[in-house]
Amino acid sequence: MTWEIAFVLTALLCMLACLILELERPEIIVFTTLVIFLLSNFISPEEALSGFSNEGMLTIALLFIIAGALQKSDLVKISLYKLLKPDDKEKKTMLKVLFPISAMSAFMNNTPLVTTFTPILKKWCEDNQLSPSKLLIPLSYATILGGTITIIGTSTNLVVHGLLLDYNLPGFTFFQLGIVGIPITLLGILYLYTIGFHLLPDKKGKRNVQEESKEYIGEVKITEEYEHINKTIKEARLRKLAGLYLLGIIRDNEMITPVTSSTIIKANDRLIFTGLISTVAELQSLKGVHLETNTGPLLEGLSSGKSKLVEAVVSHHSSLLHKKINETHFRGKFDAAVIAVHRKNERINSKIGEIVLKPGDTLLMVAGHDFQERNHFHEFYVVNIVNEEILPATISRRKGWFTVLIMFLLVSLVALNVLSMLKAASLAAAALLIFKIISPEEAKKFIKFDVLLIIASSFGIGTALINSGTAEWIARSILAIVQPYGIIFLLFIMYLITNLFTEVITNNAAAAMMLPIAVEVASQTSTNPVALAVIVAIAASAGFSTPIGYQTNMIVYGPGGYTFKDYLKVGIPLNLLVMAVTVIIVYTVWIL
Q: Is residue 374 within 8 Å of 331, Cβ to Cβ?
């Protein structure tokens, strides 16, 4: 092993450790690794920037816009909701939902699909005394499986496709991955309907968000005797009370939330605190402050529509990660105040403002009128809004169907080889903008620049693996161990390594790291490189065994009331099933 290989391996292991330990946001960790390779001259500036102009990466950016337009139309949401019938049980509902969801996921980004349908299924189950935990993990798994059917089903497929083109190899055709994707999707749904259904937990008694909020909210009344009447919240030092967080003020039956430091305190105000509610009683030692025995007015204000209780899951790419809530300017940024934080389905018992947020944390918030406008999709996934209608009151059907037509046109042009994936996606995005289906401002919001940074940086890291000889060294090491056992065993090992990576780091980074190694293995064994590329693409997407393996698993984690063990029980058999079917099909189609 040369020092160059040792250096690159050390840098990669440090990157993996930082990603697993969640020391910083994923895009920052991956981009920093790219910069290290650039400064160490393992890649040139042109190679470092090549990922930012890669066809696969640019196509993903355009597809974010198209998927955002589809999500905005709400046609998909209405179509699914009409499938649900009050007399259906969990298993019948599962079949009704999973087939269309997996089919839609072949052409749409799966994250907005799961975010859209999670509150629908959850509320429908609770209204009909059924268990959401029987349906939400299958919802996530079905979208992951459906995403393997086409080249645009998931960003991972496009990353592998783009890398193949960079290596002067033939990329995927539009439905080529469906040779594997369709069988594993059908078998996966069959598994979830039979064996998986019995492994899923049955949790009908899911917590009620609105009732739960009463436990965390305390209320005090300000009288004329209070010494800080007509002073600001900051001047009264009510912003930094030990263990407490000022959520809102009820004044003349109106609720003021979020509360700013410059808000004036007036007589007869009722101050609503959250956090360690037991410490609210300490405020009674202050003259003119009286503890109220209930928080009815606050909850009445919530139910009246002036503000809403919102449940949301912090995403892996959120700018809130690894920061204390009081450092994020949460109120001003989102027009919302956090009143509770759950991690692994347990409420964190500490002062709200001092909680350091992590991916997958479930936030219970009181949100104002501007919350939906200010919430960027990549910050957190809204999974429940109490007392809000599941279906929108109004909808532009004409624009919705036009968006569906544009998507159909895109698929047809690519499938018939009339246009490349990039050209077709460019045409579709331009049409949406020209016909004002979406505005340029909305298009910018739909694009996940943090995800694109990970993808673009991963391309440069893959180049460093090749330039340093690390990819060749790893390929030789793998072959020295597995080659005596035959090509099928090699396919299983390549799948398993990629799949393990995707369970602990991002799926796109796993694919970008493993493809250079797969191409080198194909070269040394005279194997069709497309065969190993398919293995990498499927394995990088098939993250079923942990809630952190795929972002859709994390979205349903809190709403379903799941534990980490639930994913292991249901996901490991599905992982093994998908791996076996994938290897057999790849060996039969591309190698024999």
A: no
Q: What is the mean pLDDT of residues 26-43?
A: 92
What confidence tens digit (pLDDT) does each residue in 56-80 have? 889 889 988 888 887 777 677 777 7
Domain count, the chain: 1
Radius of gyration of the chain (CA): 26
What predicted TM-score, i.e. pTM, was given to this entire model? 0.79
C-alpha–C-alpha distance, residues 465 and 7, integer Å: 11
Q: Which domain holds residue 544?
A: 3-205+411-591
pLDDT bracket for residue 206 (50, 70, 90): very low
CA distances from 264 to 234, 239, 558 (A): 9, 13, 37
Residue among 580, 545, 537 at smallest CA distance from 196: 545
DSSP at 208:
P
Burial class, 224, CB count within 10 angstroms (exposed 0-12 / middle 13-18 / buried 19+): exposed
Decide if 387 is inside a domain: no
Helices 507-525, 449-467: inter-axial angle, 10-degree rounding: 30
E strand or H helix at 309: strand 308-314
Q: How confident is the model at residue 332 (pLDDT cuts 50, 70, 90)?
A: confident
Rounded distance, CA 47 to CA 550, Å?
A: 29
Count CB neighbours of 178 within 10 A.
18
Residue 71, both tokens: 């999500």
Distance CA(110)–CA(590), nearest Å, equals: 28
- At residue 303 the predicted structure's pLDDT band, cuts being 50, 70 and 90, is very low
147, 183 contact by CB (below 8 A): no
Q: Which of 150, 177, 163 is nearest to 412 (CA)?
A: 150
CA atoms within 13 A on the CB side of 508: 26
Query: Among positive and negative, which fits the CA dihedral 140, 145, 149, 151?
Result: positive
Return the beta strands (E) in 189-307 as ranges: 217-222, 244-251, 254-256, 270-275, 289-291
For the cut 60, the answer to whether the pLDDT of residue 296 exceeds it is: no
Asked whether residue 441 is assigned to any structural domain, the reply reads: yes
Q: Give, in degrees to the nearest 5, the angle at Cα 316 between 310 and 317.
A: 95
Q: What are phi and psi of 336, to 5 degrees?
A: -155, 155
Q: Is the per-residue pLDDT at 508 higher than 80?
A: yes
Half-sphere exposure of 145 (CA within 13 A, CB side): 32
Is the residue at 516 inside a domain?
Answer: yes
Could you tell me which residues are beta bridge partners of residue 145? none
C-alpha–C-alpha distance, residues 249 and 265, integer Å: 9
Average pLDDT, the chain: 84
pLDDT on residue 194: 94
Return phi, psi of residue 30, to 5°. Answer: -65, -40
| 194 assigned to some structural domain | yes
By residue count, the chain amounts to 592
Packing angle of the helix pair 449-467, 26-39 (nearest 10 deg): 30
